[in-house]
Specification:
Elements: H1 2-57, E1 60-66, E2 72-78, E3 83-88, H2 97-112, E4 121-126, H3 131-138, H4 153-158, E5 179-182, E6 185-188, H5 197-209, E7 213-219, E8 223-226, H6 235-248, E9 252-253, H7 265-271, E10 276-281, H8 289-303
Helix pairs in contact: 6-8
């Protein structure tokens, strides 16, 4: 009887030992599954990092001011770098409506191709600096097409000016005059430099943000024009001019000499020691997108250094 009890105890201990062994093996499998869960979580963190990258490239916008008639002047931002590049269209409103469309094209492109923006760069696009002048020619739509443009030459010319009938590109503080010239026509430069809310808006934004460079689109003279204000062209402005011109295929010029320009925005930027160029489209209708995209990409690459 005693032997039977001993055999039973030994068998019981064996069963317990075997059960403990398999339990430990099961624990090992649970640990492996937990490690697998940790790996999945890490992948999720990578996804979150990708989301952060998406956030970095997400479009944001700032209303930097309003026009004479109360229309918003909006800046759209792409990227979160500490070096800001500003692209401006539509200082002459509806008269140069194709310059506005170039800016809209760039907005669309950056929205779908955010990876072209270097990590150290923030791109700011102000598609319309003269919204009142634009609305005279294309109507009240926030986004327009070429088919919306008035066919009347007189209407298009009226859209060059803001609602106070001031030529905004004669209203900045560089060689400012109350009466400026456009081609063979006298135009108003305003009652004083920055007398207009539109020019005030960009002045305040520029002086706050201090961008690395500014590119403005105009039409129609077919070239990239350097800026200066009494003290010559800076080396950085020359480099910016060359970079955009070489990539785009537009010819480069040291200055706009077709007629006297006073109170120009780009020249005021030069006075503020901010490199700036005016890119003139070849005519008043075509966007010349591929040329300008090449120019923009070259500028992004240049300032990625």
């Amino acid at each position: 009887m005693k032997n039977i009890v001993i055999i039973f105890i030994v068998a019981l201990l064996a069963v317990v030992g075997i059960g403990f062994y398999f339990l430990k093996q099961g624990d090992g499998k649970i640990d492996q599954n937990q490690e697998g869960t940790a790996t999945t979580t890490k992948t999720g963190e990578s996804d979150q990092a990708g989301g952060a990258q998406g956030t970095q490239n997400k479009k944001t916008e700032t209303v930097i001011g309003t026009s004479v008639e109360g229309r918003d002047i909006t800046a759209y931002h792409y990227g979160l770098g500490d070096k800001e590049l500003i692209f401006i269209g539509g200082i002459h409103g509806g008269y140069e409506w194709n310059a506005v469309l170039v800016a809209y094209e760039l907005m669309d492109y950056l929205q779908t191709n955010p990876e072209i923006i270097p990590q150290n760069i923030k791109v700011t696009i102000i598609p319309v600096l003269n919204p009142d002048g634009l609305s005279k020619v294309v109507g009240a739509k926030p986004r327009f097409a070429a088919s919306d443009v008035s066919a009347s030459q007189a209407v298009q010319i009226s859209g060059r000016f803001n609602a106070n009938k001031v030529d905004l590109n004669r209203n900045f503080d560089c060689k400012w005059k109350s009466s400026g010239v456009w081609q063979n026509t006298a135009v108003s430069g305003g009652s004083a430099a920055f007398s207009e809310p539109e020019s005030q808006a960009i002045k305040i934004y520029i002086e706050k943000e201090l961008p690395a460079a500014v590119v403005s689109w105009d039409s129609a003279a077919g070239g990239v024009y350097s800026s200066s204000c009494s003290s010559g062209i800076s080396a950085e402005t020359s480099a910016l001019t060359k970079t955009y011109a070489n990539a785009s295929g537009y010819p480069s010029y040291k200055s706009f000499d077709f007629y006297e320009t006073t109170g120009g925005m780009a020249d005021w930027l030069a006075k503020k020691n901010i490199p700036a160029v005016s890119v003139f489209l070849t005519n008043h209708k075509d966007v010349e997108w591929e040329k300008n995209l090449a120019g923009v990409k070259a500028v992004l690459k240049y300032y990625a250094k």
